[in-house]
Amino acid sequence: MGEPEEMEPDSVDARLAARLGGLRAERGWSLDELSRHSGVSRSTLSRLERGELSPTASLLGRLCTVYGRTMSRLLLEVEAEAPQLVPAARQPVWRDEESGFVRRSVSPPHAGLRAEVVEGTLDAGAAIAYGDAPVPGMEQHVWVLEGTVEITVDGTAHTVRSGDCLRFRLRGPSHFHCPGPGPVRYALMIVLP
Cβ(24)–Cβ(31) under 8 Å? Predict the structure, then answer.
């Protein structure tokens, strides 16, 4: 987990910290209860909610699973209402410096719609493991725009190269790894069940 330099009160990280605290409060859970549900230490959760830590993609994925949300949906909840046209300069970008993962919400999710498009970039050698599907049965399409990514779903590893597209229903853990030699950039289409 990366240490934020100095969190501005209206930054995405500050709004994300507040939303994570709000989700826990909505369920009436203590930090200890959330720790039991997520497998994340109480002290880490406390620091996340106070905005003292910036979550990694893996950690955020674990919390999304506990709260039954996709990462995009959670990030949308800290943004303003999504417009129909999203200029490239206004597409929310989230970075996990520790894992070398950059996530751009190309078409931010909307409460009344089931699909969204995300651009992901992983540095060479970077890997992200998601412990479980945030929304079991959601459909994903991964279209590699540049580079190569190895994706493991349902215990099966797939090597997806530039131009290739992998389609699957996510019901359990998944793992993304960029074997290199350069970074991988891909479009991820998510369709909720």
Answer: yes
